[in-house]
Amino acid sequence: MSNQAIALENLFDADFYRANNTDLRNFNNQQALQHWRDYGLAEGRVFSPFVDLNFYRSRNADLANLNNRQLLDHLATWGLNEGRAFSPFVDLNFYRTRNGDLNRFNNRQLLDHLVNWGLNEGRDFSRFIDLNFYRDSNPDLANQTNRQRFNHLLNFGADEARAFSPFIDINFYRAYNADLASLNNRQLFNHLIDWGLNEGRNFSPFIDLNFYRNSNRDLASFNNRQLWEHFTSYGRFELRSLDAIPYNAISGYGLVNAAAAVAAAIGQSPFPDVPDTGLFNVDNNRIKAPEVWNRGYTGQGVVVAVLDSGVDYRHSDLDSNIWTNTREIPGNGLDDDGNGKVDDIRGWDFVNNDNDPMDSLGHGTHDAGIIAAENSGFDATGVAYNAKIMPVRVASTYYYINGATLAAGIRYAADNGADIINLSLRVDPTYNEVSQAIRYAVGKGAVVVSAAGNRLSIGDIVPDYPARYATHFGIAVGAVDSFVNTLTNFSNRAGTTRLDYVTAPGRSVYSTLPGNRHGYDSGTSFAAPQVSGIAALILSANPNLSPVQVERLITANTNSTRSGFSLANSTNQTQGLAALSASFDSVTGDFIEPESNDFGSSNTAATPAISDVDQDAIPTESFANASIHLPFNSIPIDAGMTQNITTGALFFEPNLLDGLAHIQSSLGMEFLPRFDG
Known about the structure:
CATH architecture of the largest domain: 3-Layer(aba) Sandwich
Structural class: alpha/beta
Largest sheet: 7 strands, parallel
Distance between the termini: 61 Å
Radius of gyration: 27 Å
Shape: globular
Helix content: 25-40%
Strand content: 5-15%
Mean pLDDT: 81
Number of helices: 23
Number of domains: 2
CATH topology of the largest domain: Rossmann fold
């Protein structure tokens, strides 16, 4: 072996070598290196995250007959200088382009810089993976170095279908290429790099290379690989669009259109408009659910798991639509289906670990009614009023949701056949078991829908977890005002990293409450179940769709227009989003006048009138028998309100619960905490 090849031994990574060769896991670093020198190289054992000799051989036909020692020697002596590809992940031309201070380095110097400094500095070196994105999408890796993350991705992450790039989605690649359905995740990734890109296959819901070519005349002659290289090196920084579907950092894809989405699911044009239904269906009218009902699609045959504070399964508007576990024999005290849960006839309570998922707060019942309240002809009607609700109780309080409990609930729902899982909640991102459970559920065929969060007023702009996992898994949902169709002043925004973020009505949403009651509540918690209902309508029309296909139908069929703005280069996301929000309608993209309370503190902004929460949509006569759910920071509370509220409970936004004790004593009422963040 030449001295140059020996120099390349600096690429040897003992941790990587041990992880890929479990028979050597007890070797120390020197023993591992010696083993590689004496045996491992000749045996074709992988030894570095930076160099793949099999890839080097496959990409260079003139080297097909060389053994591994000869290949390494060739790479060191000639291949590096010739600019030959030696790894599916490391691209030295890309590394030079993205790091201007290295533009005079030759390839050998570039590789040396990447290995010794660039990787740890977080420099871009690959067109296919983004270690910063990998870190943000996988909170359990937050404390690892970039080298450790790189090793983790190659050794474990790829097999686990972890998100490693904002532009590549392996699950999407499988769903949209039926001939690849049998490939595992690593094989899919290799296929994309080796063939799929050149063949023009779809590998992301956010990327359309044909659109990119047709939208940029200077790229008209480029093949698909050249287009991809142009976008990763230049286009995304020049704010060139990769996708014909409008998207912005405030409202994402915008307000979902059920009539268009369901029609597209069965290969038809959007269903024609029908007259609006009654007052209690104002939100259903906004998302065009009645147009779908008119065609006979009402959620039949679809199971939606509501992971929440439980569900009042005895409610007269829900009782006929509660899922039943047919594999269990009721009341025999046995675990008939062998899932570890005795007599889980109608779901499971993971808080108390029993078979009674009765609602403890009202939040879950409200969500369930939005999805599948029966079509009684009066009161609330669910978006998918013939779907089945699987109650899964995972929390008893707004203030704390245990990640392990939530993860167990998600897996339970997936294992018991839930087609859709509604998560109107937020969880600490350090609970990595939640992200793993979501990946598991998607792999089992479930569409996961998560509320974006209501924490804009305290500076939480981008979606909360688990909604933020919608870069690759599930759908995040923000809240709009039903009548004015603009994003609410509490809803977390979409953010600059593109993800499956859509909007639905979330202010004063009318639905079921425990004890055969009905009432209003506000929050992204009540926008998310509308999207879950739309997903149920889609699956009732076409039950053969995969989760990513359902997600694509929802994001591609929205009532939004291109804003013309991108915050991709913003150095201060908070300021950038605030500026954008103050300039544009969050859904239509039209210029608007700024609202003082959109991003301002409640201590400085003027108190809005009660009309700002759609008082006109709340029938006064219902106050005596229903709970009223209104945002605390938007309503002037005074003794006069007690004249209209005689029974029930008053619900407030969670971020302003500090003053509840005073108000409770002045009104003599019980205040129930909001579950949603």
